[in-house]
Inverse folding.
């Protein structure tokens, strides 16, 4: 394993010199209450300097709790939307439209296919198929719209493609059906042939889908400063007005609805037609809401993470992470894993207390391209140079 230095070490050495000068300079003066012999100061300074300059394991190799096990497709950028079908197969791509299937037990690429346009959504494995959105290619007749793709999970062969309207579309599975948004509607789509099997009309322009419940209910929002609740049955669409455009919306296990908006406002309500039960404020746009037991873990674009009680809205802790948080964290046991897109840094936070317990710092020149996925006990991180796999270190 290569050895290297962390850049911050040299900054710390400079700080040590400055700090020690403060103690050495006033020795014997009346303004300083005690004396430190120069020889002891020199020994202490030398020891601290050597400790800071001792070669560390190269960044990105090993953390306290996770060890770098493998790097797949090193040298190739990996797109953020990785997914697994829980059958030892992992699907990933680059933004140019190359989709690959990896058998992560045998460490071999099973197939590769080109879809002709940039991948713009996560992958959704379902039965024997893989669904995702891509931009139309200039070489195809469908170049003016986004495309919903269905390809075989076993071979990568394209089974069907469907053109969607609008510049921003969202696809999401509900039970055994697939739904897609167009401006002003949500369409139910047959997974067999891509035909439209039903449509819900609504007013409000582009739809932002935040959560899909197992019951089939859809929690969404629009650019008219509204929260939208589409019931899973044939119930009536519910609208709840806000003062700003919503950016995150979930329903906790106890039924409480929690939302965040572009100005950092956070709120909770128990019934759509009733007043809210608590409100809070973050310093920037809310980027994610994640239920963790009786609490909700909130991230915002002011580089802070917050933990609030779902029931009372009381703040458990607030933590500055130092990087822009655009993706929800991955929960691994009692930890929340943050991989910062376009940064070399990933952090492991203890959810209960908000304490940072570990980190990954990628080698110089590399950066994360999206959030990690946990598959078979390992963490898969998409990066600008391959898919990096970390596995938890057992007691040694």
């Amino acid at each position: 394993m290569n050895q290297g230095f962390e850049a911050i070490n040299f900054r710390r050495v400079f700080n040590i010199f400055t700090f020690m000068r403060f103690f050495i300079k006033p020795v014997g003066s009346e303004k300083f209450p005690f004396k430190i012999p120069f020889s002891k100061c020199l020994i202490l300074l030398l020891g601290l300097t050597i400790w800071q300059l001792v070669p560390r394991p190269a960044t990105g190799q090993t953390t306290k709790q996770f060890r770098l096990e493998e790097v797949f497709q090193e040298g190739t950028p990996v797109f953020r939307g990785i997914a697994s079908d829980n059958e030892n197969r992992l699907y990933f791509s680059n933004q140019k439209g190359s989709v690959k299937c990896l058998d992560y037990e045998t460490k071999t690429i099973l197939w590769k296919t080109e879809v002709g346009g940039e991948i713009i959504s996560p992958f959704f494995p379902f039965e024997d198929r893989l669904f995702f959105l891509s931009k139309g290619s200039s070489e195809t007749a469908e170049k003016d719209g986004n495309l919903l793709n269905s390809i075989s999970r076993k071979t990568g062969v394209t089974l069907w493609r469907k053109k969607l309207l609008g510049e921003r579309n969202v696809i999401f599975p509900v039970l055994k059906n697939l739904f897609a948004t167009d401006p002003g509607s949500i369409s139910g789509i047959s997974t067999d042939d891509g035909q439209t099997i039903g449509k819900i009309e609504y007013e409000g322009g582009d739809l932002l889908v935040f959560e899909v419940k197992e019951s089939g209910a859809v929690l969404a929002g629009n650019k008219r400063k509204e929260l939208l609740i589409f019931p899973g049955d044939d119930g009536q669409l519910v609208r709840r007005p806000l003062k700003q455009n919503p950016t995150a919306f979930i329903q906790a296990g106890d039924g409480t609805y929690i939302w965040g908006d572009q100005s950092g406002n956070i709120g909770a309500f128990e019934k759509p037609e009733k007043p809210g039960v608590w409100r809070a404020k973050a310093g920037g746009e809310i980027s994610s809401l994640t239920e963790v037991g009786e609490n909700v873990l909130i991230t915002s674009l002011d580089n802070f993470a917050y933990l609030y009680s779902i029931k009372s809205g009381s703040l458990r802790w607030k933590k500055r992470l130092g990087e822009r948080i655009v993706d929800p964290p991955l929960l691994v046991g009692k930890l929340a894993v943050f991989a910062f897109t376009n940064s070399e840094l990933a952090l492991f936070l203890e959810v209960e207390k908000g304490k940072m317990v570990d980190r990954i710092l990628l080698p110089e020149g590399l950066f994360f391209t999206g959030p990690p996925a946990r598959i078979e006990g390992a963490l898969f991180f998409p990066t600008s140079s391959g898919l990096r796999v970390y596995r938890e270190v057992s007691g040694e």
In short: The longest strand covers residues 66-72. Residues 1-12, 25-34, 51-59 have pLDDT under 50 and may be disordered. The CA atoms of residues 2 and 58 lie 6 Å apart. DSSP finds two helices and 34 strands in the chain.
